[in-house]
Amino acid sequence: MSRTTLVLVHGVAGAVALLTISTFWLSALTAELVLTTAGVVTVRMAILYAVPALVIAMVAAGASGARLAGRSKSPVIVSKRRRTMLAAINGILVLVPSAVFLGIRAHAGHMDATFSVVQLIELAAGAVNIVLLTLNMRAGLSMRARRVRAGRANA
């Protein structure tokens, strides 16, 4: 795969991942604050069914980013790697299990104190991932802008 294609895949996958997590977060918060129980169930089931798309986007962003970064020791790349690893761990250990738990509990009508605690944990973990992925996107766009400016200076 050419570098240009890899950069495109990385950017699109990262943007899809960030947009998906943000949509999940806003939907869950909105559902809890303003929707009926049936609305919460619908939102929770939609999130549960959409988790595989998020996982695919995260894997694509991570794999393409790793390929683009190679063995770079650049501080920007090292920071992006660290944030990506934290987001992945957060997703695997907190967000995906929470989405599954909350989807199953909502579907079964068990929206009790345990549901609320897990939901608060999920919202906090989701906010962390939104921040991490936003910082990565900002760093990536900054690197791209520097590369474009350098290309113009050499032309």
Automatic annotation (TrEMBL):
Keywords: Membrane, Transmembrane, Transmembrane helix. The chain crosses the membrane at residues 7-26, 46-64, 85-104, 116-137. This is DUF2269 family protein.
